[in-house]
Design a protein that fits this description.
Layout (H helix, E strand, L loop, with lengths): L6 H38 L5 H32 L3 H35 L1 H4 L1 H30 L4 E3 L6 E3 L2 H5 L4 H30 L6 H35 L1 H8 L11 E8 L4 E8 L2 H7 L20 H31 L6 H9 L3 H15 L4 E3 L3 E2 L9 H31 L5 H4 L3 E3 L20 E3 L9
Helix pairs in contact: 1-2, 1-5, 1-7, 1-13, 1-14, 2-3, 2-8, 2-14, 3-5, 5-7, 7-8, 7-12, 7-13, 8-9, 8-11, 9-11, 11-13
């Protein structure tokens, strides 16, 4: 089946499939961990039991998404040692340390406090439970810090020397390699994208329940929808601004990628157009059926109507990225960003009119936009990673020289196995997540003033400690206001 296939291409497809599948979960859980910390903090501060209802609702979803993210990510570390062993050997002295720090300082932090966040409120008290919840949120951000640092170094390598004998990249300055030129922009852009992804999932779920339960609207659904719309209205414009800064940084350090994003096969000495649509034609080195706005690209990228912009005609053919993929993935990302901004502005108008919870058209649009953050994140990563080709370490190590000398049949067989297992296992997990989201949060009146306290299952007698509740649990009042401490 794979005897005439390209082993390097199959290895690239395999890694692209697994990393794309994996990152869908961190893109959701990074923002959801912070959202849970906010919900728990608002409840403890006495702003109402609705925040406790929402915390208990979303923490179950977080636990499942977090677990699937961890399991799907383990596979990639094995691929570094199998399909991409040459890359690991060459770059390992530089990227090995931050990847280890991600496991030691971030993942252990998340995993260590996750159990307390999920099950420990009645065992450790509200104060320590809040600390554990905040620590999980910090851990997810710390994971993003280290992983994005490694990825950014591959785009804009810094703080290294190359061994003349082995060809290995050796660390010369740890801080320069971590805080490489593209790292700050990529980190902020990625984290904000994760927050927007979570906001639109939360908002979509809230809108779904508002549409379903119009006769008896659920206050928890209203609150989650309102919070998500505030995030969309405030953060979407910030993301557009940060994305522009990231694009300018990319133009400085990876100009060929920007040329592909813009569809500029030809140089424009007197101002470059912004192409809205077109069909990239690599063979003829032109953009067919192009529709553009004259000189707008120069205004955006160089802040001047007549500023010159170089095109792919200045880049050798064997160093050009695949323009078709980069051109269209970039437009998918930007298009979804504009739709997110539209939702945010629409929600502000509805809030001003006092119809935020009654505007059915807005609710339907929010439901349709539920997966938009995930799609935009994938499109953004496709843009940045395919745009880096033909290099794994930009300008220094080609992708073709990074792969292990494996037979195409071996790589292809494992690729098929990954596709089958991923869709079966994670498809079932995703289906269960959707089932959880389809059930509305329990109305406040069912929980107001009460909390269910149950002891752990004991299979070896009763351990020393406080008196345990009778079978079936007992009810006690929830702490109110600041007396919860």
């Amino acid at each position: 089946m794979f005897e005439h296939a390209d082993a390097v291409l199959l290895a690239r497809i395999q890694f692209a499939f697994t990393v794309s599948f994996h990152f869908l979960f961190p893109a959701f859980t990074i923002g959801l961990a912070s959202y849970l910390a906010v919900l728990n903090g608002l409840w403890l501060a006495g702003y109402g039991s609705v925040y406790r209802v929402l915390f208990d609702y979303w923490k179950k979803i977080f636990a499942i998404a977090f677990a699937m993210g961890v399991v799907s990510g383990i596979v990639m570390s094995y691929q570094f040692g199998t399909n991409w062993s040459v890359f690991s050997d060459k770059a390992g002295p530089v990227i090995g340390a931050p990847m280890a720090y991600e496991v030691l300082s971030a993942f252990f932090l998340e995993a260590g406090f996750l159990g307390i966040m999920l099950f420990g409120r009645e065992r450790v008290g509200n104060g320590l439970h809040m600390l554990a919840t905040a620590t999980v949120a910090v851990g997810t951000l710390l994971s993003a810090f280290w992983i994005i640092s490694v990825n950014s170094w591959m785009h804009t390598p810094a703080g290294y020397t190359i061994d003349a004998v082995t060809g290995q990249f050796l660390p010369e300055s740890f801080w320069e390699s971590i805080f490489n030129p593209s790292f700050p922009y990529r980190l902020v852009h990625t984290v904000i994208a994760a927050y927007l992804t979570t906001a639109f999932i939360v908002g979509g779920v809230g809108a779904w329940h508002l549409l379903r339960d119009r006769s008896a609207p659920n206050e928890a659904a209203r609150r989650m929808f309102s919070m998500a719309m505030w995030m969309a209205a405030i953060v979407a414009p910030i993301q557009i601004f940060v994305g522009d800064l990231h694009g300018l940084n990319t133009l400085e350090h990876q100009p060929a990628k920007v040329m592909a994003m813009e569809g500029h096969y030809e140089s424009h000495p007197d101002g470059a157009p912004l192409y809205l649509f077109g069909i990239p034609n690599d063979a003829e080195q032109r953009l067919d059926y192009a529709v553009g706005i004259p000189k707008l690209s120069s205004l955006i990228l160089r802040h001047g109507w007549n500023e010159p912009l170089a095109g792919l005609d200045t880049v050798p053919d064997d160093e050009q990225p695949p323009v078709f993929i980069v051109f269209w993935s970039f437009r998918v990302m930007v298009g979804i960003g504009m739709l997110m901004l539209t939702v945010g502005i629409w929600s502000l108008y509805a809030r001003w009119r006092g119809t935020l919870y009654e505007n059915r058209a807005l609710h339907r649009f929010a439901v349709a936009m539920t997966p938009s953050g995930l799609v935009a994140v994938l499109a953004g990563w496709i843009t940045t990673e395919v745009g880096r080709q033909p290099y794994t370490i930009y300008g220094l190590l080609r992708t073709a020289d990074s792969a292990a000398p494996l037979d195409a049949a071996a790589v292809g067989t494992s690729l098929v196995a990954f596709v089958i297992v991923y869709f079966a296992v994670f498809g079932a997990g995703t289906f269960y997540l959707l089932r959880l989201m389809s059930h509305a949060p329990r109305p406040m009146e069912e929980l107001e003033g009460w909390d269910e306290v149950r002891g752990p299952i004991r299979t070896a007698g009763i351990a020393p400690g406080p008196a345990q509740p009778e079978a079936g649990g007992h009810r006690r009042p929830l702490p109110s206001g600041r007396e919860r401490e």
